[in-house]
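DM from R.C. (forwarded with permission)

"hey, sorry to bug you on a friday — could you get me a structure for this? deadline for the figure draft is monday and I only need the backbone to look sensible"
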Amino acid sequence: MDKIAINIKQLTEWYLQNDITRMIIIFLGFIMLLAFISYVISKKMNVPSVVGYIIIGALFSTSVVGHLKFLPANFTDYYNLIIRNFNFIAYITLNFVAFLIGLDLSVRIVRTLGKNIIIMSVCEALGAFAFVLFGLMWIGHLPFYQALVLGALASATAPPATVMIIKALKSRGPLTSTILAIVGFDDAISLIIYSFASPIARTYASGSGHFSLYAALAVPLFKIAVSMLIGGIGGYFAIKLLKKFREKQEKVIIIFALIFIISAIASYFDLSQLLTNMAAGFVVRNTAKHYLGLSDVFDIIMVPLYALFFIISGLKLKITLITNAGFILISIIYLIARMLGKILGAASGATISKAPPVVKKYAGFGLLSQVGVALALAYIIEQEFKAVPGFGALVFNLLLFTTFFTETIGPILLKVVLIKSGESNIPSQNALGRKK
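My reply, with the result:
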């Protein structure tokens, strides 16, 4: 204890002597300037802002800045330290994202759309998980635990780009409704898949090789149940407060307090912060008796959080790693396997649930965007697998690298299938946007 106390004292003095707080404030201003520049450029070039944030973050990553000869010798070390000091922003963002996922899970919508959505969501998520898992093991020759974790990440789908394209095309119909519902449930399913995959992967990563059914199923199930229980209780009390306080400022305070408190409780007991917040959002959404206006609140809150999150993620990109031939091969396998898993999984789910032919034919092509929850989970993986050298960096860089493709190909294919299905309410046109 004395040794720890001395180290903390020395660290505190070092922080004060080197004025790290001032550096962090300067760096935060620098990041927000990058966010504004990136947003303006992305809008003019008509590319997703997420891609712009990641690219501009990558341009200022340590692997780029470290090669600038005119900077002081120890600048890169300070720069890397400050970047790591901003990791807490990523954890805050992903907890807000998890709450939003729960907020989108409406029991009423499930009842309206029926079992088709649940079946298709499970099939396409498990399809991506299985294809990536076996593809990376058999073709990419990755260890089982690494392929298992990446398979769990592959099951996630990013709603923002999907929703943006659907709104732009003013699309309506069974295919549109199905895609919107699936992307709402998809991330919840991916969190549950990861909650089971993670303890199994950690067992194999430790080198023990001892597989325990209890550790693989009973422990994750218990943690999932307790996480959701804590989130549900938190959401219940939040609803009670939201009924009494109707002003927007009061809603912001209540939601912030809810997310931070239940996240702290989950962290203290080593539970899933993401599932806890998702459960809280679900309870808030489905027990509210009137419109709470939380979407308007989150529309404002999430703009700077998303910008910071994706730029800081981009800062972690390692150019030397993504130019490695082995890394490129793994990325290609991951991309192709995930696409096949999503498309074939959605088609299988549509066949089982007897969905309309247009849904069976096209739904999978609207589920290819990924960045979001998957990248958020990368921060958790970095922490959980810190004993495995280089694995956290591999996951981060794989997701960042493939984002350029998923966020480009995904929206394009979604636009094509919505037009081909006849559900787009814009003038008839071909896939390139030209009138026939």
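R.C.: lifesaver. The chain is about 80% helix and 0% strand.
me: no worries. The first helix runs from residue 2 to 17.
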